[in-house]
Amino acid sequence: MPQPLSLQRNSEVFFSTVNLYDGDAFTDMTPSNTWKVEILAGYAASQSAATQDINSLESGLSPDRSSRRFKTSLNPVDWNFQTYIRPTGIQDDNDHSTSAVMPVCDWYLWQALVSNTNVYDSGGGDPNSAWQIGGKYDTEKRTASGTVAAHNSNYAVAPEYNMYIKMENVIYQVKKATVNQAAVDAAIDGIATTTWTGFGTELVELTGTTRSQAVSVFGGIINDCDNPIAANSNSTSMTRAASYHPWTTWNVNSSLTTPSFIKNRLSSLVVKHQTAGGAANTYTFPLTAVSFTYNNNISYLTPEELSIVNVPIGQFAGAREITGSFTAYLRGANGDSGQLFRDLAADTRPAPLKAANANLIIGGTTAPYVAFNMPSVVFDIPTHGIEDIITVTVNFKAQEGDCGGNGGEVEIFAKKS
How many Cα atoms are found within 13 Å in the side-chain-facing hemisphere of 235? Predict the structure, then answer.
């Protein structure tokens, strides 16, 4: 009997602290530690090998012209997917059946990106969220307070999780998955999205017992049987029996709700810049495009021993980079894009610390929105786009305001209503 094809349309992705491949039980998967991610088309996960070719080239009429290839090591797993930014309404610690603040569906991916605090501590209990009351995430280092977990963005080793990719009836696990980068895109004619990229140490297929355990949680067709079983989730109670937390349904104040989409056409920008002469100007103008990227620059260590295929043994985080750009039509009025161009072009200070700040509000000032407030920003000199309507594009980099090494480059705010 022909085996069914695996269709991208039926793919599902889950993040968890539970490691099924290495012996954890599927009953350990709960709505606190296992989360479904609703992805868009075009996701990818792959692991390649590094090779070395050795060629023989001799002189003479009958030379040895052989060539041999050696597989020297496995590269880290590369994975990426795109999601919509969707506020949940869980902006305070009393909005949910747990006491954790989870203001966006991918709150745990943001936490895995910017913090050393694991989203879940083994042994049970609520999610270990470092999001703050009011739906805020300040990247500056802080201690635990009330229901808010401690946070530090200056970590040497990124937090590691397990990523499960269910490709129809084939299930893969990315072991020790790390979140390296989030790229927020807010094209004017679209819905706000985030492209997530990261790594892992191994890409393994779940077979036999481990596959049966995964299917009992995620749903599908069990081994050696044509009978599908339903996913073991319960969006109403979010109890241990639910096994994982669904993305599209949230229990907010004892009522089932659906997270909101964000319309980019309503997005806005507020820029404040203190010129070299001391004038403090505020610029507010419509945008035609905006992007925001947070990058951990994670790299992996792999041994180079002979006669074996080396595998990555660990990773460490590099320099934290928070960059982006925005584009607007060129207008010459005070407080508009033309004045911003003039002031930035005239600023010859090599390191204008705290001279400018920016607040990107994806979705506009009326909820739902997600805002990225950067207290200290360095702007590049704007560039013109000469088309039917002339535009100005400005690249920027967020930085610590006091160079104290405590983070604080960005404050994230999420609000549903």
Answer: 13
Q: What is the pLDDT of residues 184-208, one digit of tens each?
A: 998 888 899 999 999 999 999 999 9
Domain ranges of the chain: 8-47+76-257, 264-415
Of 187, 262, 201, 185, the closest CA to residue 78 belongs to 201
Distance, in Å, from the CA atom of 281 to the CA atom of 290, rounded to the nearest integer, reads 21
Residues 6 or more apart in contact with residue 414 via CB below 8 angstroms = 87, 91, 103, 104, 135, 136, 369, 370, 371
Rounded CA separation 339/336 (Å): 6
Joined tokens for residue 148: 């808010």
What's the rounded Cα separation, in Å, for the pair 391 and 371?
A: 23
Q: Two tokens at 215?
A: 């299917």
Tokens of 182: 């989030």
Query: What is the value of pTM for the model shown?
Result: 0.91
Please tell us whether the domain made up of 264-415 is placed in CATH 1.10.10. Answer: no
Cβ atoms 171, 204 nearer than 8 A: no
